[in-house]
């Protein structure tokens, strides 16, 4: 993959993938090995996702699958997702994992404790005037589904593990990504909260493409830039 | 200007069947206070941050500033006015015994949250009291007396 310093921060993360990142020609001496085939992916805005077809330029199916997962992990690692996909007792809010206000606890069934249940406040849809986010079935994911602070390769292994993915097969994960109301909330978060990149349909298409390409996991842990946007939950 | 006619919403409030003809998105708080005249439930922040508006919906605590009346159709709402007929609920007795309130504004929400806690955990640990009441703010800082009164109410309920 050819990396350009002028390509902006969004191309940068591809350079760490096992896609054959080539050094600029000016730095290559006569003893360097032959350059690997360049994989050039188009830049993408922080708020957008690359479409699955973009990855068709990666001929190796394993590498293509890994790259697809790295792309979709930008959604999984977005604050709209990781604020509730936590391992601890309390969710977070905002763009920088701030403590949830009021101070709620997970409780025995991931729905809060008596008097402070999730649905004491969160309704079946967003409340714009009250600024309280909502969707049908608002609750915390189980601890086993914690995503916060995970790397793409860790996330990938977790998503393929039925013990840590809600006993879902790969086809179930595609369907869950496409239709689940809490997943959908990530792109309709209400009250000035920056949504996850792209759209739910684009995300689900990436998940489907990842599955159909073999559901390979990234081999290396690279930092994935996440568009966190403004400071709202 | 044409008045909007809303479909009736049936619910039970403090054991009495009521009918609301209001915008279905109206927060329950305002239906209780402005339509039904039950002003014991207070408006604090309007954003589910303070707990002053806490009431029971089918026995569970909800923040009435946030729940639209369309979601209470056919359900049972209990406000501070309905906790007991004569102020004889153990929490009300304990509140009086220990002189809990200062300004009193948050106390209805505090008591309604505590009532749900005691119904589920008749002998709550201090930790359980803290966890359940953590979202009910008191600007006067009566937290120490509130926590003590919840434990006292648990004793009174045992007789």
Describe the protein in words:
The complex is a heterodimer of chains A (233) and B (159). Chain A has helices at 9-12, 61-76, 79-82, 118-121, 152-159, 170-179, 181-185, 200-212, and strands spanning 92-93, 98-99, 112-113, 116-117. Chain A has 233 residues and is mainly alpha-helical. Chain A has a two-stranded antiparallel ribbon with strand order 1-2. In chain A, strands 3-4 form a two-stranded antiparallel ribbon. In chain A, helix 2 packs across helix 5, helix 2 packs antiparallel against helix 8 and helix 6 (170-179) runs antiparallel to helix 8. The radius of gyration of chain A is 19 Å and the shape is globular. The model of chain A is unreliable at 1-30 and 225-233 (pLDDT under 50). With 159 residues, chain B is α+β, with helices and mostly antiparallel strands. Chain B folds into 2 domains: 9-82, Beta-grasp domain (Ubiquitin-like (UB roll)); 90-158, DNA polymerase, domain 1. Helices cover 35% and strands 13% of the residues of chain B. Chain B has helices spanning 28-35, 90-98, 107-120, 126-133, 143-158; strands at residues 9-13, 16-20, 54-57, 60-63, 76-78. In chain B, strand 1 (9-13) and strand 2 form a beta hairpin. The longest helix of chain B is centred in the last third of the chain and has 16 residues, at 143-158. Chains A and B meet through strand 4 and helix 4 of A and strand 4, helix 3 and helix 4 of B.
């Amino acid at each position: 993959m050819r990396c350009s310093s002028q390509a902006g921060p969004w191309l940068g993360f591809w350079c760490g993938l096992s896609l054959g990142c080539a050094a600029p020609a000016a730095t290559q001496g006569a003893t360097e090995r032959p350059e690997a085939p360049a994989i050039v992916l188009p830049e993408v805005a922080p708020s957008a996702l690359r479409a699955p077809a973009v990855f068709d330029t990666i001929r190796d199916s394993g590498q293509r699958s890994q790259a697809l997962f790295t792309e979709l992990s930008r959604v999984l690692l977005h604050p709209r997702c990781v604020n509730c996909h936590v391992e601890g007792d309390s969710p977070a809010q905002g763009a920088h994992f701030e403590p949830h206000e009021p101070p709620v606890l997970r409780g025995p069934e991931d729905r809060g404790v008596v008097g402070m249940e999730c649905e004491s406040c969160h309704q079946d849809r967003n409340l714009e005037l009250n600024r309280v986010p909502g969707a049908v079935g608002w609750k915390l994911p189980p601890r086993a589904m914690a995503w916060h602070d995970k790397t793409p390769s860790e996330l990938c292994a977790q998503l393929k593990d039925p013990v840590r993915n809600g006993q879902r097969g790969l086809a179930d994960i595609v369907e869950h990504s496409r239709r689940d109301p809490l997943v959908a909330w990530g792109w309709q978060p209400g009250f000035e909260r920056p949504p996850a990149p792209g759209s739910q349909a684009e995300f689900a298409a990436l998940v489907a493409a990842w599955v159909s390409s073999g559901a390979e996991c990234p081999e290396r842990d690279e930092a994935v830039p996440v568009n966190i946007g403004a400071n709202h939950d | 200007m044409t008045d909007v006619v809303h479909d009736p919403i049936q619910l039970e409030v403090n054991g009495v069947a009521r009918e609301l003809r209001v915008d279905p998105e109206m927060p329950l708080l305002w239906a209780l206070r402005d339509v039904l005249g039950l002003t014991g439930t207070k408006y604090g922040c309007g954003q589910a941050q303070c707990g002053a508006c806490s009431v029971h919906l089918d026995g569970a605590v909800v923040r009435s500033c946030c729940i639209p009346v369309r979601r209470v159709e056919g359900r049972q709402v209990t406000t501070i006015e309905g906790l007991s007929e004569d102020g004889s609920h153990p929490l009300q007795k304990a509140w009086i015994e220990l002189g809990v309130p200062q300004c009193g504004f948050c106390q209805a929400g505090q008591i309604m949250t505590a009532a749900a806690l005691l119904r589920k955990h008749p002998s709550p640990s201090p930790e359980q009291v803290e966890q359940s009441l953590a979202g009910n703010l008191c600007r006067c800082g009566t937290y120490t007396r509130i926590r003590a009164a919840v434990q006292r109410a648990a004793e009174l309920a045992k007789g």
